[in-house]
Write a structure and sequence with these properties.
The protein has 152 residues and is an alpha+beta fold. The chain has one domain: 3-Layer(aba) Sandwich (Cytidine Deaminase, domain 2), CATH 3.40.140. Helices cover 26% and strands 24% of the residues. The chain has four helices and five strands. Strands 2-1-3-4-5 form a five-stranded mixed β-sheet, with helices on both faces.
């Protein structure tokens, strides 16, 4: 028969770690959607081929403290798990996040699914006191900003 100490040893340990080697003053600031697009675009592989979902994590001064790849899908979509988004934001002690995904079709307009997902993530962020500052849809020829278009 197992003792309570033996059962305790079978529980996985969880470690929450955020490490940055970049000084706060060296981090880029995002004060408008164009800045987010300019930060995200250079590192975005296969922007016209496969859909990806990423988030920018920001501190209170809107300086980027991290970039997280949330999911990679196919040519028409990707699965987005809200738990992964907000676990990363909490781990990094982010005050705000910018959601971003690409449309391989080149269409910048959001789908109904994009709008629904954004509303859901904004509501979760409000409960956690983590602001969803924008949701960008990226293409190789430009972007769509939910914030600039009044959808946030």
């Amino acid at each position: 028969m197992e003792t309570s100490n033996e059962r305790w040893l079978q529980v996985a340990e969880i470690e929450l770690v955020y490490r940055s080697k970049v000084r706060a003053s060296d981090r880029p600031t995002v004060s408008r959607a164009q800045h987010g697009y300019e930060i995200l675009l250079p590192g975005w592989e296969n922007i016209d081929f496969i859909e990806h979902f990423k988030i920018l994590l920001l501190n209170r001064a809107n300086r980027v403290i991290g970039l997280i790849d949330i999911s990679t899908g196919g040519t028409t979509g990707t699965v987005v798990d809200a738990k992964l988004i907000f676990a990363a934001a909490i781990k990094a002690n982010a005050c705000g996040i910018i959601l971003a995904h690409n449309h391989p079709s080149g269409t910048k307009r959001p789908s109904n699914a994009d709008i629904s997902l954004t509303r859901k993530l904004v509501a979760i962020g409000d409960m956690l006191d983590i602001s969803v500052l924008d949701h960008l849809i990226l293409t190789s020829e430009g972007y769509y900003s939910f914030s600039e278009e009044g959808l946030l």
